[in-house]
Structure formats: C-alpha cells, structure tokens
Amino acid sequence: MSSPDPVRDSFDPRPKTRGNVARVSAALFLGATALGVLALVVLLADIWRDGAGSLSVDFLTSFPSRFARRAGIKPGLAGSLWILALTALFSFPLGVATAIWLEEYAPRNGWSRLIQTNIANLAAVPSVVYGILGLAVFVRGLELGRSVLAGALTLTLLILPVLIISAQEAIRAVPNSIRLAAYALGATRWQTIRQQVLPMAMPGILTGTILSLSRAVGETAPLILVGALAFVPFVPNGPLDGFTVLPMQIFDWISRPQASFHQIAAAAILVLLAVLLAFNLVAVLLRNKYTKTL
Amino acid sequence: MPSTLHAPPTAPTVIETEKLSVLYGSAAAVKEISIAIPTRRVVAFIGPSGCGKSTLLRCFNRMNDLVPGARVEGRVTFHGADLYGPGVDPIEVRRRIGMVFQKPNPFPKSIYENVAFGARINGYRGNMDELVERSLTQAALWDEVKDRLRMSALALSGGQQQRLCIARALAIEPEVLLMDEPTSALDPIATQRIEELIYELKSRYTIIIVTHNMQQAARVSDRTAFLYMGNLVEYGPTNDLFTNPREEQTEAYITGRFG
Amino acid sequence: MARRDEELRRADRLVAPEEQDVAGPASEQPSGAGPAYSEEQPAEKALDVLPQAYGTAALAKGLPEAPGRETVRLPVLQGPPRRRRQEALISGILFVASAVSVLTTVGIVAVLLFEAASFFADVSPWEFLTGTTWAPLFQPQHFGVVPLLAGSLLVSLGAALIALPVGLASAIYLSEYASRRVNRIVKPALEVLAGIPTVVYGYFALTFVTPLLRQVWPATEIFNAASASIVMGVMIIPLVASLSEDAMSAVPRALREGAYALGATKLEVSTRTVVPAALSGIVASFILAISRAIGETMIVTIAAGATPNLTLNPFESVQTMTAYIVQVSMGEVAFGSVEYRTIFAVGLTLFALTLIMNGISIYVLRRFREVYE
C-alpha cells in the first residue's frame, strides 16, 4: 500500500528504543537527585546514632576534660554566643550600609561596578584566607591577640560579601513606584530610604543576615588561624579574652584517636545542628510572614 | 513649530516655560516648548504615545532629575523663579508642585500614615489628625475611610487608592498638582469620580493633567495643549481646540485619523 | 517686548526677593481667536497656608499682606543648607562603609604579597613552585609546594567526579522532570546539605566513610584522599545543582516546545536542547565548584591527612594546601620565622589559584552567554 519513499524511509525513528532509553535515563536522573537526599539522611542518622547517647544537661554545662565522660561544651557554647553577638554587631550595619550605598546612592559608573564585582569575588575566596588576613591584621597588626574580638572581626569580613549581596537584592525588590511617590512629595533621598525603602526591604535583609550569621557560627578554619584554642577551661568575660567555639571543640575531639571522644564529638555536632536549624527556621518563618503581609 | 501658535491665557500664570527641551543623549523628547500655565485652571496635555507629554510634565517638578541621562535645556519658571536655576533644591520645588502618578502607588502603610508622610517630612507641627481629615475630605475619600484610618492602604480599591494618592499630595499644600494619566489604570466609575474631584479641586489648585483620552481632556480641562513628537502643536482654550482647531495636525488627531 | 522685560525683572529678583503685585493679567497679547473663555477673575482669597504649622517653608510660599490683595514673594527655591549638609554627610558615611569591601581585598592582597615577598627572599620561588618535597618543619627543610598542590587537586578532582555528574543530573531532574511538589521537598533538602558545617562533614568522612572504604579496599589508610573526596563531593552537589538549574531555567520555554514539537523525547529535549543552551552557566558552575573544593579546609584536615604526599593514589594519605595552613597555625611556630611565613606563601598560592578559577568561571559566563532571542 505505501510505496517505498526514500526520504521517509531514511528516518529511523525506532520509537521503542528511544522510549526505553528515555525511561532509563529518567530513572537515572531521579536516582542522582535521590542520592543527594539519601546522603543527607545517612549523614544525619549516623551522627544521631553516634552521639545521641551522650547528650545530657551536664554535657551542655560542663567544661572539656581529659575524660570524655565528663567533658562538656560550655566554653564552646559561650564562645559561639560571643562570636555571634559581636559578628552581628559589626556585619549588620556595615553590610546594610554598603547595600544601601550600592543600590541607592552609587552612580552607575565603572567604579560602582568594580566594587560590585569585587564583592562577588570576595564571596568566593576560601575561608582560610580570611583567617590569614585576620591573623595578620587583627591579631598581629591591631594587636588584639587571640581574642573573641579578633575572631568576630575576621568572621565579619568573611560573611560581609554574602550579606551585602542578599541585602542588595532585598532593596532592589522594593518597587520603584514607592520611591517616586516619596520623591514627588519632596522627600530627600535619605528620608525616602529610611522611611519607605528600608522598612519594606527589612524582612529580606534580616533573612539574609540570619542566614549569613548561621554560616559564621559553623565556621572553624578562620578561627583556628586567629587563635581559637582547642582546650579552653573558661568562658570569655570580655571581647579581648581567649575563646573557643563549638565547631572548634568538635574539631578537637574528632582529632583524638579515642572512640569515646568521637562519641561526644557527635553529640556536640547534634547541638550545633540544632542551633543552626533554629536559625534557619527563624529565617524561613520571617520570610514567610512578611511575604504574606505584602 | 513656531511658538506663537499657542494662545497665552488671559489669567495670571504660575508656570511658564521658554524653549524648554528635554534630551536623552542626542534624541529630544521635548523640543523647545514655550507654554504658560494659568493659575487655578486645569490644563490638559494630549497627544499620541511617546509625544513627550509626560516628559514635559516631569520638568515642572524636576522629576526628570531622577531619570538617568536626561538633560534639560531652556527655562521653566515658577512665579518667575527659574526652577533649574543655580542652587535650586528640587526638594523645595516638589513641595510646591505635587504629582499624582498613572498607577496608584500608596505606601504599604496605613491610610493615615500615607497622608501624614508628606506633612511630616515637611516639618509639619500642627494637628496631624486635622490635616489628614482635611486632605482626605478634599480628595473626596474621607467618608469612605474615616472609620478605618489605621488600615493598610493596600486594602483599598484602585480608585480609592488613587484618591488616597491625591489626598497625600494635597496634604503638603502644593500650589500646582501634576497628574500623569491619573485614571488610565482605573475603571470608568472610578475615573468619573476622579474627574469630578478635579473639577472641585481647581478652585484651590492649578492642575496640569496628562491624558491619552481626548474625551477626558474635553471634559475636565479649561485649556488643552496638543503635543506631537516632542513639539507643541497647538495650545488654547479647550472648547476652541476641540471644535475649531487651527492646526491641521490637531484636527487629524482629534478626529482620530492617527494616534 | 514688555513681557520679556517683565520676565527678566522677575529673574533678577531671585537673589533678593521682593514683594510683587500679581493683580490682574501679567502680560498678555490679545488672543486672536475670539474672546477669551469666560471666567471670573480668580477670587482674591489669601493663599490658604498655615504658617505656624509648616515653619520656614510657609514663609517662602508667601503670605497675604492685606485682605483683598494677593501678594506673593518670589519663591525661594534654594532650600536650607543644613539639609544639603545632612544628606552629604549620610552619603559620605555610607560610602565609607562600602569602602570596607574594597579595603578587604586590598588587605588580603597586601598581606599575602608582603609576607610572601619576605618568604621568597629566603626561599627561591623556583624551588617553591617546582620542588616535590614539602618539609618546612623538619631538618633538612624543603619548600616545594607541589605535593600540597597535588593533594588539593587530587581531592578536589575526586570530589568533582562525584559532584559534577550527580549535581547536573539532579539539576536536569529538578528542572525538566520533577513536579512542583517534588521540587518543594527536594530543593530545601539540597539546601540543607549545603548548610551543614564542614566539621560535620569531616567527622562523617573519618568515622563513617573511611571505615566503609577500608572494608571495600583494605589497603586504604586511615587518613586518605578518597574519603575526603567523596564527602566533599556530596557537600558540593547542591552548589552544582542550584547553579546549573538556574542556568537551565533561563532557557526559554519556546526552545523546549520547539523540540517537543519535532517529536523529541524528554531526554532528548533535556540533553540535546536545554543543556547545550545553558552550557555556559553549567560550565561556569563546574569551575566554581572545583574552586570551592580546592578552598575547603576542615574536611581535608580531619580526614585526608597531614603528610604531604605526591601521589595519584586516592587511598593514601595526602595533605592539601588548606590543611597545611591549619596545621602550621595550630602548632608552635615563631612569629616572623620562615616557617611562619610558609602560611602566607601557601596562602598566596591558594588565593591565586582560586582567583584564577573564579575569573575563568566569570569569563566563561560572560563570553559564552547564550542569547536566546
């Protein structure tokens, strides 16, 4: 019935094979995605298994000791809290101010684009390099020594680029019509920013800040460079005191050969993850609440 | 286009331009326009899209300053004072010449705060509640919102939001109100209310309205200016311009042959 | 003519505003076309201004002198100098804040170069860059950075071997196959993976992956590159997945629809249409991921080892540049000594390497950015 058609017959659709290949590959893609999720589950399960048994109130309130059974994370928690507070104190105003300048004031010329590119580059610099910078400038240069302050300043520089970028996005998301309305009423640039733009952008800015700070809480390498100590039998009383942080204690314990220390390292990890989870939940809740209000 | 074509008003003028041009790079959006706006009248700018009417409007409150790359040449005077003179602060200009935009843009705050904002940044020290009530009354919105002043302005309908924007602009007691296609985003009923409002307002304020709707210009304005491709083609009393236009282009536009 | 004079006189009064009568028509030529539209003269009411309420602004607006007569001062449009100063001050403060970011880069470069310069006064750059033994803390001292570099590259490329295919496949799945519901669960899960601190990954590598590897391949040392590679690979999957997915989302629907309309299967559309169309973004994400792996510290410090070792065997212990920097700074090293300065020399190498890779990534993104319409 159908006469041989040289053009049509030179197509070889082979629907069955193509269909099979398509199905197999779909499964492969799904498998790859599942791999990532699976890895997460395995990781969390393993840590829970190792460390849940060592969790206790004593664990949270004791100092580290030579005996794993009696060791606790009190100095780490205290130090992390100090670091968190000081880093927030420095990074929030600096980051938001930079973002405001870049979005609202900077003339659109080569210089501001340079600053923008510079910030993007800084976001990709390895964290240990920031530690080196902190060592040279804050510990040695400004003679702050191995102090909480030096650590916080170093971490501020580390998280500043990401904070700036997310704050910029939040400010950019404010519709321009609002600015025009304010200007048309005779508002100055700062009045417009402070009374209209910033309040609207603040939820987004806060979310970005919280996420950046949670990253700072989990950092270890820069603080090692700056002199966070491994074995600290005290809690910092002032910004110039020595300190340790929770990730540092984890690192110290995992570096020891005894399995008992590995166990409490796992317990400390659980505490750290719980803290970070709390941070991220707050950030997500904040984002959801204000997206609904608008 | 020769500037003698426009018929100057026979009332005192508040804003006058002299060979006003606005250029973006080398392209001119407004070409050497000379026009005089009479006090406490409604003047309409009409013309096809892109003819420069909004650009011209923005010269009067120096909002073109905010457009990157825009350059203004020529003169604009307000009660004789050069708006672009040396040392003139655009803030001061905008406190005397207010603006309402095409798409209502209330702040995401309460109705009260929307109206109060302009007054506050102007250093208002009087009774704010009275000012808010007076402004909302002038904008024919008071009765509808007096019981919910603390509610979000975004909960209002489009037409109400636009009247709120008008109230907000009136709260700082400007002399001139610039309206850039204020009803093009609104439904016919809301449009009608605003046109009525304009008629009430002109006893106290000078109003310049840009509109792409010729019928609206015919309804609300005392004088009309027809712009085409950046040029002022014709300017005169509304009745005259619509019933007996002097320029061929004007007639072509209002009879719908183009635009 | 008279009108022009009037205007000029008005302009002159800008500097010294005087009162001026504005009663009646200021300057008119009779309009040619018939009588002016009938209008009453504007009522001679005073400007409705509340002077006390508005402060200085009201003065500039003009106040009625006497009832029945409208007198207006020439408006003063200059604005109080205090306002200009305030705005300039704020602008200045904000600019200084922005300068911090510039100073950070300057600081990093200056610190690294300065200290590395005095290091290279003692150690020849040639030996540093080409020497295959790294033993700065022992006698005799050797300062060849190649083993550290090799260690970093070995671990990173191993991580890339895992992260790039899995990440890209995940991105394809999420972008082309997955339903919105799946997306809403899987994407945050991957974000969580990216947010886990690297010490935690190090723990996982040492206590879970290494024992597993030793069961499968008994010759595996306790500290080895493979564990670190595997775990680092998992850590980087979200980076590759999200950047690649962004690149693929930017491909317009129309392109996909065209391919489907030709009878292509989803696989063919994804791999032959979308991926090539998003290639610059995907390649850029690959390079960025490898750069990130090279810069990572804690996983390798905990799990990969502390012995510089020039090898291709991932089951041996190696030391990366980052792990070395940590090791030295934790030890007792005299400030100002050559050993101390190795921190900066190695740091400079690390910084330069990641900078170059990031630069290449941006270059690839810009130069080969696909234009869709």
Detail the topology: elements first, then pairings.
The complex is a heterotrimer of chains A (294), B (259) and C (373).
Chain A: H1 6-9, H2 15-51, H3 57-61, H4 74-105, H5 110-122, H6 127-141, H7 148-172, H8 176-184, H9 189-217, H10 221-226, H11 246-254, H12 259-293
Helix pairs in contact in A: 2-12, 4-7, 4-9, 4-11, 6-7, 7-9, 8-9, 9-12, 11-12
Chain B: E1 13-24, E2 27-33, E3 36-38, E4 42-46, H1 53-60, E5 70-78, E6 81-82, H2 90-96, E7 97-100, H3 111-121, H4 128-138, H5 142-145, H6 158-170, E8 176-180, H7 188-201, E9 206-210, H8 214-220, E10 223-228, E11 231-237, H9 238-243, H10 248-254
Parallel strand pairs in B: 4-9, 4-10, 7-8, 8-9
Antiparallel strand pairs in B: 1-2, 1-3, 1-5, 5-6, 10-11
Chain C: H1 2-12, E1 19-21, H2 51-54, H3 56-61, E2 71-73, H4 81-122, H5 125-130, E3 134-135, E4 142-143, H6 146-177, H7 180-195, H8 198-216, H9 225-249, H10 253-261, H11 266-277, H12 279-295, H13 298-303, H14 321-330, H15 338-367
Antiparallel strand pairs in C: 1-2, 3-4
Structure report:
The complex is a heterotrimer of chains A (294), B (259) and C (373). Chain A has 294 residues and is an all-alpha fold. Chain A has two domains: 31 residues; 235 residues, MetI-like fold, CATH 1.10.3720.10. Chain A contains twelve helices and no strands. Chain A starts with 5 loop residues before the first helix and ends with a helix. The model of chain A has no long low-confidence stretch (mean pLDDT 88). Chain B has 259 residues and is an alpha/beta fold. Chain B has a domain of 176 residues: 3-Layer(aba) Sandwich (Rossmann fold). Chain B contains ten helices and eleven strands. In chain B, strands 7-8-9-4-10-11 form a six-stranded mixed β-sheet, sandwiched between helices. In chain B, strands 1, 2, 3, 5 and 6 form a five-stranded antiparallel β-sheet that branches. Chain B starts with 12 loop residues before the first strand and ends in a 5-residue tail after the last helix. Chain C is mainly alpha-helical and 373 residues long. The N terminus of chain C is likely disordered. Chains in contact: A-B, A-C, B-C. Chains A and C meet through helix 2, helix 4, helix 5, helix 6 and helix 7 of A and helix 4, helix 6, helix 7, helix 8 and helix 9 of C.
